[in-house]
Amino acid sequence: MTEIAVFLSAAAVAFGISRLAGIPVVAMLVATGLAISMFVKLPTNVLQTSMELGLSFLVFSMGIELSPERFKTRMWPIAVISLGQILAVGFCSFIITTLAGFSWQHAVLISLALSASSTIAVVRHLRKRSQLYEPFARLVLGVLLIQDTLMTVLLVLWQKWEQNAGLGQVAFSLAFILLLAVTMHQFIIPWLVRKYADDSELTLLIALAVLFGFLGLSDLLNLPTLAGAFAAGFSLSAFPVNGLMRAQLGSITDFFLAFFFIAVGELITIPGLKGLLTVVALVFMLFVITPPVVMIISERFGISTRSSIESGLLLAQAGELSLAAALFSLSAGRIDSEIFSIIALTTVISMAITPLIATDSITFKLMHYRPFARIKNREFANYRGHIIIVGYGTVGKRILPDLMASKRPVIIIDDDSKVVAELRKQGKNAMVGDCTNIEVLNSVALTSAHTVFTFSRRLDDSLFLLRQVNTQQVRVIVRVFDDLAAQAVQDAGGIALNTMQDAVDSFLAWLGSDYQRLMARRLTEYKAS
Fold first, then answer.
1. Domain 2-369, CATH
2. Cα dihedral across residues 75, 77, 83, 86: positive or negative
3. What are the residue boundaries of the structural domains of the chain, listed by start?
4. Which fold has domain 387-498?
5. Is the dihedral of CA 132, 181, 186, 145 positive or negative?
6. Backbone angles phi, psi at 422, to 5 degrees
7. Measuring CA to CA, which residue among 85, 61, 49 is closest to residue 311?
8. Residue 197: what pLDDT?
9. pLDDT of 246-288, one tens digit each?
10. H or E element in which residue 480 lies
11. Taking the complete model, does pTM exceed 0.85, yes or no?
12. Are the beta carbons of 414 and 394 closer than 8 angstroms?
């Protein structure tokens, strides 16, 4: 009980400091574990149990965030970006560790461990900035799904190979458990959630039953718990099931994650000078290599410059599976505590730095100073008195026929290359880009336009566009979702189109007239009381 009390007290302190200081919670938990190890050495069995439980919930929570429905239209570029990052980071990590004097076996292990990015850190960052459903976020989550799936399979095969197990049987068991996860993801879990969504306790029990059911199945198939936990999380990742499950499991997941990362901190020892220099070099490499690789590949597939840069900055880190690989290697005797500490420190430091560099200000600087991408499409630069639509979503599609009927030229800017390609096939004027790229705005003759409609998801993007024009000469109509945003647009000289009331009306209509009458009756009863 004393050990558990120490863990819980340390976790509470770490979460509190993280919230107050704005430090990523993972880094704070590991640092807390490292601090505890200087004064108290927890028993090995406590650390091992904490890591096993924590790792299961860690991988489980990763799987829940990775819904393939979000990015199924971009699977080919996502696959290329995933493999490109793994190969680039793995190769550079191997070169660095080899030059540092480590054996080639250790260099390979370090390279494998650092190749995949952190799902937990990325999702927390996106959710904190309310960007989880933006196009670049869908791209990043697609990359993470492929990387996590690949790394999970490799780790399972590696563990069984270490145990001299038949790889054919292991591959068959893996295929079976993944097929079951896909079946539950597509059919069984959505049906259960629709049936019992009103009962939060039963929903929580369903989630836990799925997790422990897959853990039991993985044990029955003689697979590591890592495979069962990831499959369980994936089976619950369908939208909107994942949002409901995340709300139910949030506190439980954080509880076990705290145990895991504090235990990792307990195992870390401060390496010597060579080890520390290697950590610095590896962290530097992650932030220098990953963003350019992701940016260049993304732009080759027609993804907008901004989305490419934001994706590259977010993926520039090592992830949770790095720690899983390091823990397995340590327990198998493949590495010593120094190599484990190098991997763990590189992972934690890169996870802590990423939120500091994945910001709008750094993205804008890279957009304007990048050496490898320039706008080549200048066919609209000489237009005058035209109409520009920024963001061709549902609203853009709805108003386009009326705008075309005005006989004025209409230019559409969208950050989805497939949308732009389809529009151009239809004979529409369209180009890939976003409204924060000065080159894009110049290439569509923004300052000579008659009217601009911006349906950007971010208010700051629309305000940026407003600052580039004389609103006395160019009308800028901005979609907003609340009165505060509407006031900001009006203060900047734009015309605010508040769609909140339309959204509420549409939602009530979708629910049906019976629901509307019920709500009206309840409201009347409430006022009467």
1. 1.20.1530.20
2. negative
3. 2-369, 387-498
4. Rossmann fold (3.40.50)
5. positive
6. -65, -40
7. 85
8. 65
9. 767 777 777 777 778 888 888 888 888 999 999 999 999 999 9
10. strand 475-480
11. no
12. no
